[in-house]
């Protein structure tokens, strides 16, 4: 059975004989007959999302796998893996994944994308600042978590590709430093021609906006909704801007995938394929759990859900390389254009083959 534990055992993949049940179909009860098969223990670290919950807690199964899950906020999970390579599978930002590969890491990835958003709609400035349009940002001070963060990568790319803002004409201020920075763990240095400086220690981007020390910052929708500071989003109607982007490009950006130890993919390709199926089952279960009626305390919840679904004719959360080719080609190109990597590898080289 899948297990969620506080740590995972590093090293070789251990084979054990344990009791397991046949993988249930989603439309029929699970078989009651117990079987005895050899399982391989595989360790995974990542953040808990609705779309992976069933795999993490063992409701969804990966045949032949004893999945040992360590739940961790994704930034911490990535840094932990990149420092010590403790885990067989790790949730990883696209930028960090490509940097690690270019540095020689023996890794591949499963084309599962647990989180998507129109990240650029998380930009905000002080309510009384004069900036009302992305084209007003040349020469301004913009705060981000860190340069290599994939949400920042996407947001910077949208400002340049959709609104014409050259990132070299902006003063970038990064919040994370030292061991708290994925870029520093990787030894990454910003490319020449880009102005990047560290924010004062202990001071948040929201606090710097409130103090007038930044003109704009990528704070996200949560900070915009909960902050006591007088913030104003760069895009007054985030929903309308998200629909504009989707209409123009045909996808919702994803920032993370699941990086896999290369030896695991070579030695146990069938188990990686079974994990892929487990991710698909977990996602299907999450979709089935969406409320069909009005949730208590959420007025017009079902109506908003229906309106959102109608805005996306294709599945915006699809897994696999094929349905996501345009998105993947864009994020790889952005990594090269913004100086994270020197070469943009072909998409097929980045993921385990046959998982579509």
Describe the structure.
By secondary structure, the protein is of the alpha/beta class. The chain has twelve helices and 13 strands. Strands 1, 2, 3, 4, 5, 6 and 13 form a seven-stranded mixed sheet that branches. The protein has two domains: 3-116 and 254-289 and 320-349, 3-Layer(aba) Sandwich (D-Maltodextrin-Binding Protein, domain 2), CATH 3.40.190.10; 119-249, D-Maltodextrin-Binding Protein, domain 2 (3-Layer(aba) Sandwich). It has helices spanning 53-57, 74-84, 94-102, 150-163, 182-185, 205-210, 220-226, 238-249, 262-267, 269-288, 301-310, 325-337, and strands spanning 3-4, 15-21, 34-46, 65-71, 89-93, 107-110, 123-126, 141-144, 171-174, 195-198, 216-218, 231-233, 256-261.
Going by CATH, the architecture of the largest domain would be: 3-Layer(aba) Sandwich
- CATH fold naming of the largest domain: D-Maltodextrin-Binding Protein, domain 2
**What can be said about the biggest beta sheet?**
7 strands, mixed
Shape: globular
Mean pLDDT: 87
What is the highest CATH level, the class of the largest domain? Answer: Alpha Beta
Kindly report the name of the CATH homologous superfamily of the largest domain.
Answer: Periplasmic binding protein-like II
Poorly predicted spans: 1-34
Discrete helix count:
12
Which structural category do the helix and sheet elements fall into? alpha/beta
Portion in helices:
25-40%
Radius of gyration: 21 Å
Q: Domains counted in the coordinates: how many?
A: 2
Number of strands: 13
Head-to-tail CA distance between termini: 26 Å
Instruction: List SSEs in N-to-C order.
Output: EEEHEHEHEEEHEHEHEHEHEHHHH
């Amino acid at each position: 059975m899948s297990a969620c534990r506080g740590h995972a055992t590093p090293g070789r993949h251990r084979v054990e004989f344990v009791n397991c049940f046949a993988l249930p179909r989603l439309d029929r009860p699970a078989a009651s007959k117990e079987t005895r098969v050899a399982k391989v223990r595989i360790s995974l670290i990542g953040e808990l999302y609705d779309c992976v919950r069933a795999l993490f807690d063992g409701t969804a199964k990966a045949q032949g796998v004893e999945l040992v899950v360590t739940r961790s906020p994704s930034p911490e999970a990535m840094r932990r893996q990149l420092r010590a390579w403790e885990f067989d599978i790790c949730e990883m930002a696209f930028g960090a994944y490509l940097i690690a590969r270019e540095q020689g890491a023996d890794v591949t990835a499963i084309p599962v994308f647990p989180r998507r958003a129109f990240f650029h709609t998380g930009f905000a400035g002080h309510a009384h600042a004069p900036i009302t349009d992305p084209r007003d940002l040349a020469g301004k001070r913009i705060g981000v978590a860190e340069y290599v963060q994939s949400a920042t990568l996407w947001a910077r790319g949208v400002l340049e590709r959709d609104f014409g803002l050259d990132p070299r004409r902006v003063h970038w201020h990064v919040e994370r430093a030292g061991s708290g920075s994925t870029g520093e763990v990787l030894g990454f240095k910003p490319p020449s021609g880009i102005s990047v400086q560290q924010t004062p220690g202990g001071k948040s981007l929201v606090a710097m906006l409130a103090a007038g020390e930044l003109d704009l910052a990528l704070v996200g929708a949560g900070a915009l909704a909960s902050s006591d500071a007088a913030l104003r989003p760069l895009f007054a109607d985030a929903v309308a801007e998200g629909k504009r982007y989707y209409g123009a490009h045909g996808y919702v950006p994803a920032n993370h995938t699941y990086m896999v130890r290369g030896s695991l993919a070579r030695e146990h390709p069938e188990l990686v394929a079974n994990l892929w199926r487990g991710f698909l089952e977990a996602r299907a279960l999450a979709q089935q759990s969406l409320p069909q009626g009005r949730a208590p305390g959420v007025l017009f919840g079902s109506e908003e859900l229906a309106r959102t679904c109608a805005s996306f004719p294709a599945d915006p959360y699809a897994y696999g390389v094929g349905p996501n080719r345009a998105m993947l080609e864009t994020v790889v190109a952005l990594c090269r254009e913004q100086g994270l990597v020197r070469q943009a590898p072909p998409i097929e080289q980045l993921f385990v083959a046959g998982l579509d």
